[in-house]
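Subject: Sanity check before I submit

Could someone independently write out the structure tokens for this chain? I want to compare against mine line by line before I put it in a report. The sequence has 177 residues.
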Amino acid sequence: MQREIEVKVLNIDVDEMEEKLLALGGQEVSCEYQTNYTFAPEEGAFSNGYLRIRETKFTDDSKKIELTFKEVENVDDFRVNREYTVNIDSISMMTKILNQLGVSLQFKGEKERRSYTYKGQRFDIDIWDKNTYPEPYMEIEFTNKDKVDEVLDDLAIDRANVTTQSISELRENLKNS
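---
Independent answer below. Compare away.
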């Protein structure tokens, strides 16, 4: 199990954010392309998280496929995820198994993810296909809560643009606006 403390920063200019990270001494980690399949029980939703299959293609042409259950808890102004992940080798076979268990595909989305590190924290700039989510945003995964204000201040991030919402919640808000 992996535990992460996470926030999303909405309303970013991708080029400007990348320039800020690099100017402050941040390091580029990777650029990858992902296809994400988010699942939910046919009778509603998971009470405390969500299930996802992610296929990641890297710039060196390697790829991996993972099944992850994210157990989500909002604590103060942070989202704390406990991730339970296994590697799989077939999206279609795993989807069939999930369907047999009463869990079906909620949505499929593709994105480009550009990742950086700065002050020991991870920054993922996500650019989804327009049908999934039309605006880029940045996820920041913190090693501990004490770094949050420092990093947000370094990058001059307006706290009004910081959220703990998942991509499913962001999509739902977009539909309702």
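---
OP: Matches mine. For the report I'm noting this point. Strands lie at 2-9, 27-41, 49-58, 63-75, 78-87, 103-118, 121-128, 137-142, 162-163.
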